[in-house]
Amino acid sequence: MGREKRVKTIQKIAGLRESAVICYLTGDRENVNTRIAPDVLPVFYRHLEMIGRRKRIDLFLYTRGGDILTPWRLVHLIREYADEFNVLVPFRAYSAGTLVCLGADEIVMGKMGELGPIDPSVVNAFNPQDPANPVARIPVNIEDVYSYLTLAREVAGLTSEAELGKVFALLVERIHPLALGNVHRNYLLIRSLAARLLGLRKNHDVRAEVQRVVDHLTEKLYAHNHMISRREAAEEIGLPVAYPSRELEKFIWDLYQCYAGELCLNEPFNPVQLLHGPRAEFDVAGGIIESEYGQDCFIFSGMVERSDFPEAGKVNVNILKQGWRTVI
Predict the structure, then answer these.
(1) Looking at the structure, do residues 168 and 31 belong to the same domain, yes or no?
(2) Max Cα distance, the chain (Å)
């Protein structure tokens, strides 16, 4: 399915939903994956200006996650153009993608739709070094730190200040104090962002209900790779989930499969296969933002070349440029 057929599917979804639809996919193809990041905001602005003010805007979303601050700005930007903002989830909308969903008035999830926990891992200059790569830092998961302290109190039964002080001192021996400070700052940030995004909905919940949702998505799932089905999202967490009609779900899934094929999500990017001589240039898409009015792609541009130094048959791959590019 090329762009012409995709646009027809987008228009069919928009007709059934009485909305304008923007599609946003951050690809998870091996070697050219992309994530939600602030550089997407000007691209969305371009599409929203072409769409204009509407009663309802639906965001068709597929992502493994990304920057946790971008959803706050993105949801506010889309709401500048619509009285009602909704998200269509054909498959994965994890981490930062789930945060985007929290700011929606309605989350339309198909049978394959999945959300995820919002307990990010944080990395800064003070994180522990990776033994396998001295220039890299090991991410520290926020909930892992707090679970360690909870383990000491609730399982080991340590209650005195002296005992808990020793537990904390042991933690500081392994993780730099400033890295732990960064963990705590992000602990507060993610909960604040989630609560504020939930408060943007037209029919937002009372404070106690908001806190329950936030606690569930941060503390009560116990695994960052937990996949939240639409039934769990609606009945256990209490999110405003809507089930699409059979016709709508078919269009949503067909559109996702088209993008999965366009981005080659099911096969690793192997630039060596492009070599038919000493070198070859490549442009490969790792993400897409598309509406019926235009298309932008996140493009990795680079070169692959054979080299006999320092050893024969060696292949070098260089990414020379990457970023969003307007296609239409």
Answers:
(1) no
(2) 70
Where do we find the tokens 């383990």? 151
Does residue 232 form part of some domain? Answer: yes
Contacts of 145 (CB under 8 A, 6+ apart): 171, 175, 180, 183
279-291 vs 92-93, strand pairing mode:
unpaired
Is 274 within a domain? Answer: no
Q: Does one domain contain both 92 and 166?
A: no
* Residue 7 shares a structural domain with residue 97: yes
Q: Clarify whether residues 14 and 148 are in a common domain.
A: no
Question: What is the torsional sign of CA 274, 275, 277, 278?
Answer: positive
pTM: 0.89
Q: Which domain holds residue 131?
A: 121-184
For residues 109 and 239, state if they share a domain.
Answer: yes
- Which residues face 88 on adjacent strands? 60, 108
| Domain co-membership, 174 together with 85 | no
Residue by residue, pLDDT tens for the chain (328 residues) are: 689 999 999 999 999 999 999 999 999 999 999 999 999 999 999 999 999 999 999 999 999 999 999 999 999 999 999 999 999 999 999 999 999 999 999 999 999 999 999 987 777 777 887 777 776 778 887 778 878 888 888 888 988 989 888 888 888 888 888 888 887 888 889 999 999 999 998 876 666 688 899 989 988 777 778 999 999 999 999 999 999 999 999 999 999 999 999 999 999 999 888 888 888 999 999 999 999 999 999 999 999 998 766 666 688 889 999 999 999 9
Residue 107: both structure tokens together: 């989350």
Cα 236 vs. chain centroid, distance in angstroms? 22
Count of the separate structural domains present in the chain? 2
Asked whether residue 293 is assigned to any structural domain, the reply reads no
> What are the distances in angstroms from CA 86 to CA 21, 135, 240, 312?
10, 41, 10, 55
Alpha helices in 199-308 (DSSP H): 207-218, 230-231, 246-262
